[in-house]
Amino acid sequence: MSQRENTIIKLPGLVDVHVHLREPGATQKEDFATGTMAAVAGGYTQILDMPNNTPATVSQKSLEEKEKLATGKIWCDLGFNFGATADSSKDFKKVAKKVFGLKIYMSNTTGPLIVESEKAKEKIFEAWPGPLPIMIHAEDKVIEDAIKLAKKYKKAIHICHVTANQLQAIKKAKKDGVEVTCEVTPHHLFLNKDDARRLGSLGIMKPPLLTKSDQQKLWDNLDKIDMISTDHAPHTLEEKKQNPTPFGVPGLETTLPLMLTAVALGKTSTARLCEMLATNPKKIFKLPEQKDTYVLVDFAKTYKISDKNL
Ligand code: DOR
Ligand code: ZN
Asked: What is the per-residue pLDDT for 276?
């Protein structure tokens, strides 16, 4: 074998359960074709799309329309997460076998999907048939509400974009027998509040970037976090300069190179990356196996991430 071949590593096709493709409603940012091309360019072969589109994916009809829009346009495997509202709960049973998760916004974000009333939350947790997890957007202490409901209704929950101040509550919930998993985003791992100042409106996302010490806590607890999800949320540059600034950053093309940089720096290992970027998300969201699907990375090559080649 030549020396060059020796530097090539084989990874499984990566899986991301938390992607905000922008079709329907905001195809000036991205559509099913460009979004899934970005996924493949970043080493992802299986992704799950979030429901906060316009119109939101909160009925059997809007789900079917989304499926139709994506048909014939996608470059990798794509599944959908359903949006939870008090009203959409009437469709849960009809869609539960077609989607890969239910997403509930218990904290504010892009789009109108926030669920604030306790009564609505109870209704949603009670109605979701499972066994796929309820994906939770709950910032800071709001997570406790989600854990309480998961316990009461015996539902599996998946905490999206975990922050350092939530790790203790998750640990305790696990101890109490709650079926809870969590994910971390690359932007919370690689950026912090100091970067946010430098980046201005480009650094605005939900949840917001953490302090340097809370960022470090995420790295220190990487072995307790089930997966890395991109929370890929593109907006145009013009939109990011507007006031109010829309939340979010794209991540599909940059996550693998960033995480491999972390391996090169000794912060994690490729074996752990395979668990967090493929094995665990597949297992937790019961995703189908993809035969003969893999990603080859030349570890000897380095390059600088730039917006020009994205
Ligand atoms: O930063 C974010 N952007 N967080 C979210 O929860 C939603 C996302 C989006 O859709 O823009
Ligand atoms: Zn998100």
From this structure: 98
Beta bridge partners of 47: 16, 78
Mean pLDDT, the chain, rounded, equals: 96
Ligand located closest to 203 CA:
1
Query: Residue 295 pLDDT > 60, yes or no?
Result: yes
The DSSP 8-state label assigned to residue 277 in this structure reads I
Q: In angstroms, what is the span from residue 117 Cα to ligand 1's centroid?
A: 21
What distance in angstroms lies between residue 234's CA and the mean position of ligand 1's atoms? 9
Which atom of ligand 1 is the closest one to the Cα of 111?
10
- Residues near 12 by Cβ (< 8 Å), separated by ≥ 6? 274, 278, 279, 293, 294, 295
Q: Which two tokens stand for residue 113?
A: 């999907």
- Rounded to whole angstroms, the Cα distance separating 85 from 21 reads 20
pLDDT tens digits, 250-282: 999 999 999 999 999 999 999 999 999 999 999
